[in-house]
Design goal:
By secondary structure, this protein is α/β, with parallel strands linked by helices. Helices cover 52% and strands 12% of the residues. The strands form 2 sheets. A 7-stranded mixed beta sheet has the order 3-2-1-4-7-5-8, sandwiched between helices. A two-stranded parallel ribbon has the order 6-9.
Length: 346
């Protein structure tokens, strides 16, 4: 059985056409439609109930607008199918693609993505800026998440998967890219993509605005591996270090020897805080104070490794000094990461 999960918020006027096109597409295949509505002011849910005498549709009504991913997860909790489809209600995801998605599942794919970015797929009438945002968000995911690197449209909202893909995995209900969660955390061996045209919204308005860009970036960072987050914290720490140094030196006129030490210490503490709260999600086994001490010890040797590498490359091998320093920084970083994991967040 296929369970088609469709989150809705103010989509009343799309339901008639949506249901009739799904019915025509899935004709002959056992299926159910699950609408997860967030108490839409336009009374989408009432309309669904009205139509439930003609279509195999159930509706979950949630108390307020709680977001796309959590809607899909609530839909999953009542879905009876061993195959799950997720799509939008506004007909930008043409229901006629459903049979193709299912065919690929039958051919042995675990997850099938309706894709705008493989041969044959497209978007209708997008402005250059909208295209750039969409492509940019995909490239960001490719850079930070190795699991999606060979997938052309990992941010698609239209896809089908075998239910066992998400068995025992803890999906995050925050955000709106549930597919990304599944691709990073799910158990599967084959992902397939099939092309479609992302049409224009014909009725109602899009609910995903500018704030979703920030929430998307935070979501991707959350899904990334600790070494990526550790590197970002390190890069940010470099800015903190230089910023503090600049203020102490040039705004307050403090001696370099003191300013430099303070700047380093503040950046070490800020790195510690970010790594603790975010990179390693407070998975430490000792108190904060002891962790801070351990972090300093781990860091101290990282700096020494960096310095020693740099000096050795410069003096012994005779490499150019900036190159030596750069290689030293990379060595120091890797050493630091390994050691922090061993003695602070083991
Ligand atoms: N229950 C619920 N709660 N539904 C919601 C919410 C919410 O907070 N926000 C949006 N929806 C519903 C809408 O009613 C619609 O059916 C669907 O989720 C998608 O919302 P749109 O507002 O139409 O999003 P979009 O067209 O900008 O973006 C879609 O397409 C992109 C490209 O494939 C989404 O599917 C994106 O996830 C996708 O990347
Ligand atoms: Mn839409």
């Amino acid at each position: 059985m296929i369970s088609v999960i469709i989150p809705t918020y103010n989509e009343k006027d799309n339901l008639n056409e949506l249901f009739s096109r799904i019915e025509r597409s899935l004709n002959g295949l056992s299926h159910e439609i699950i609408i997860v509505d967030d108490k839409s002011p336009d009374e989408t849910a009432d309309k669904v109930k009205e139509l439930s005498s003609s279509y195999p549709v159930k509706v979950i009504v949630r108390p307020k607008k709680l977001g796309l991913s959590s809607a899909v997860m609530d839909g999953l909790s009542i879905a009876r199918g061993n195959v799950i489809a997720v799509m939008d209600a506004d007909l930008q995801h043409p229901p006629e693609v459903l049979p193709t998605l299912y065919e690929k599942i039958e051919e042995g794919c675990d997850i099938v993505i309706a894709s705008r970015y493989i041969k044959g797929g497209s978007v209708e009438n997008w402005s250059l800026i909208r295209k750039l945002i969409s492509k940019g968000s995909i490239v960001l995911a490719w850079i930070l998440l190795p699991q999606v690197r060979w997938i052309k449209d990992p941010v698609s909202g239209y896809f089908m998967f075998r239910r066992q893909v998400i068995r025992d995995c803890r999906l995050n209900p925050r955000g709106f890219k549930i597919l990304m969660e599944i691709l990073v955390k799910g158990n599967y061996s084959r992902v397939c993509e099939t092309p479609y045209t992302f049409g224009l919204r014909r009725r109602g308005i899009s609910k995903l605005g500018a704030s979703t860009i920030i929430s998307y970036v935070l979501h991707i960072l959350d899904l990334s591996s600790p070494i990526v987050r550790f590197a970002l914290v390190g890069a940010f720490g470099t800015l903190v270090n230089l910023g503090v140094l600049w203020i102490l030196r040039y705004a307050l006129g403090i001696f370099h020897e003191i300013a430099s030490a303070l700047a380093i210490e503040i950046s070490v503490l800020s790195n510690f805080s970010l790594n603790d709260l975010w990179t390693f999600r407070r998975k430490r086994k000792v108190s904060v104070i002891e962790s801070i001490i351990r972090y300093h010890l781990a860091n101290a040797s990282g700096i020494l490794v960096q310095y020693a590498t740099s000096v050795a490359l410069f003096k012994v091998i005779g490499l150019e000094s900036l190159t030596s320093q750069f290689i030293g920084i990379i060595f120091g970083f890797l050493f630091n990461y390994a050691l922090s994991r061993k003695i602070v967040w083991w």
